[in-house]
Amino acid sequence: QLQLVESGGGLVQPGGSLKLSCAGSGFTLAPYAIAWFRQAPGKEREGVACISGGDYTYYTDSVKGRFTVSRDSARNAVYLQMNSLRPEDTAVYYCATDDGLKHCTRDYEYGYWGQGTQVTVSS
User: Beta-strand (E) ranges in 1-123?
Assistant: First the structure.
């Protein structure tokens, strides 16, 4: 059974850092695009970052220069390193992928989602 499991969320002060992990279970992440989304209370889901099957990376403007998405094929995982965190980064963060999907795309094209991990940035 194909599953994605996020971890690494928590409470951090503004300016701090967190590293989120997205682990694959039942399949290999390496050939596929893995995207990170987030959803804050009362707001629509937002694409944050994505790494394609060819390891090209994409970021939404608000996180460029602060977040880095990377892949560790040996650990079958994708990471989201988040630095210089701001209160507006507070949200539940999800990773997503789909069978055979190698390019980064809109959220409705991803059929597999993790359960989410809460990130709270507050003093």
Answer: 3-7, 10-12, 18-25, 34-39, 46-51, 57-59, 67-72, 77-82, 91-97, 112-113, 117-121
Cα–Cα separations (whole angstroms), residue 37 to 1, 74, 79, 112:
22, 24, 13, 12
What is the enclosing helix (H) or strand (E) of 93?
strand 91-97
Q: What digits encode the pLDDT tens for the residues 66-112?
A: 999 999 999 999 999 999 999 999 999 999 999 889 999 999 999 99
Q: Are 107 and 96 in contact (CB under 8 A)?
A: yes
Query: How many residues are listed for the chain in this entry?
Result: 123
Q: How far apart are CA 122 and CA 3, in angstroms?
A: 31
Please, are residues 25 and 3 in contact by the beta-carbon 8 Å criterion?
yes
**Bridge partners of 121?**
12
SS3 category, 35: strand
Q: What would the two tokens of residue 35 be? A: 């995207």
Query: Which residue reads 């701090």 in tokens?
Result: 16
